[in-house]
Amino acid sequence: MADITLQPIFLHAVWGTRHCSVSGDGEWKHEEKDIEVKLGKLYFMGFYDIEITHIESDCITFVQGKDPSRTLAPGEWIHFSAEIEGREWSDGCVYDSDDYSLTLTWRTSNS
User: What 3-state DSSP class applies to 95?
Assistant: First the structure.
């Protein structure tokens, strides 16, 4: 089935990251940008496994890894979060990691 869109669709992306360690959690650093919706993988650090698999004028379908698909409609938002663990102590306890946050909002001309 072909994707049906009358005009390009843009999402507003708010992407953030922070580093955590035994000495405490770092501050969140956020970036914002608008992206045009296209089929395929999104390229935000920490979220290389998110893929847009279907686009219609009233629905975008996302798949993240092996998770069930999720959909987004005009005027709605969708949030993803991830943690990537870093180094470990010799006993196997993780002592640092990076947290990631991604929120995508489908802005309509009325919002």
Answer: coil
pLDDT tens column, 51-102: 999 999 999 999 998 899 999 999 999 999 988 777 666 666 656 778 899 9
Q: Is residue 50 exposed (0-12), middle (13-18) or buried (19+ Cβ within 10 Å)?
A: buried
Q: Are 66 and 51 in contact (CB under 8 A)?
A: no
Specify whether the CB–CB gap between 87 and 94 falls below 8 A: yes
CA distance 102 to 43: 11
Q: What is the 3-state secondary structure (H, E, C) of 15-84?
A: EEEEEEECCEECCCEEEEEEEECCCEECCCCCCCCEEEEEEECCEEEEEECCCCCEEECCCCEEEEEEEE
Strand-pair partners of 28: none
The confidence score (pLDDT) of residue 89 equals 62
Local structure of 94: helix, strand or coil: strand
